[in-house]
Amino acid sequence: MTTGTALLVGGSSEIGMAVLVELLGPPPRRVVLAGRPSGELWRNAELLRDVGYYVTTAQYDATLQAEEIDGLLAHLNADHQLDLAVVAVGSMDEESFTDGLVVNGLAVALLVRALVQRLSAAGCGKLVLISSAAAVRPRQSIAAYSLGKQLADSTAVLLAPQAAKAGVRVLVVRPGFVATRMTEGLQKPPLATTPEKVAWRVALALRGRRTVVWAPAPMALAVRVLRHLPARVLPAQLR
Ligand SMILES: NC(=O)c1ccc[n+]([C@@H]2O[C@H](COP(=O)([O-])OP(=O)(O)OC[C@H]3O[C@@H](n4cnc5c(N)ncnc54)[C@H](OP(=O)(O)O)[C@@H]3O)[C@@H](O)[C@H]2O)c1
Q1: Using one digit for the tens of pLDDT, what is the confidence trace for 42-75?
Q2: Which residues does 127 contact at the CB level (< 8 Å), separation at least 6?
Q3: Range of the domain at 136
Q4: What is the residue with the minimal CA distance to atom 42 of ligand 1?
Q5: In CATH, what number is assigned to the domain containing residue 78?
Q6: Most buried in the list 27, 135, 182, 230, measured by CB within 10 Å?
């Protein structure tokens, strides 16, 4: 086994798992799924074990940021040479505005910084942050989520050039609407996509040099247009 460890933070995430699977390459390989304990997390671990990866799970709760990052890095310290990190943490359901900001923003920004530092020290590797179109066009109905995403997204974009000098590739992914449990029950808008299609866009983007990829690609233009329209002419769910 020559390839280093792959890490998915948000180990139960549908988009995160699709991206991880697309990027993993053939087994055997060490994989760490980090997240809060859940059936989805165990199921994802089993799926990967069944096809030959060596999978461990690590505790990560974004509401407790600093200590959780230390715990996660300590888990990786044991015997893992990290070379791929996918960060797919996000929630629109936080009970308070503060929690929404911390889980989607501060915790993820600190985590991204810590992982970029870890990869940079090794002089190689990739970090993929699953951000959101909402990072560029915040919406009133999901204000804490949007503002959090802005912080996490900007952190990764700002760190990318320095990381590149250290041999580390940072990719920021901005999906629009993706059909997952996060969007279950919501009406599918035009340009809705799937986790597998997002994963395919990520794999393609990693072959190029851009720091940001939108999923699907026309989302970039759609967001640019929407930003120039006054809120009052838009339907409530787009404001
Ligand atoms: N679906 C979309 O339309 C869409 C669009 C744009 C961007 N995104 C982003 O894509 C990423 C993946 O989302 P998804 O669609 O795959 O939904 P998902 O399956 O619900 O994934 C969200 C992930 O975030 C984790 N998470 C939430 N709160 C957390 C906390 N306090 N501590 C630790 N982990 C926490 C969840 O873990 P638990 O299982 O423990 O809750 C889960 O692993 C997220 O960053 C999301 O914001 C999604």
Answers
A1: 999 999 999 999 999 999 999 876 677 777 888 8
A2: 84, 85, 86, 87, 112, 115, 116, 119, 156, 163, 168, 169, 170, 171
A3: 5-238
A4: 13
A5: 3.40.50.720
A6: 135
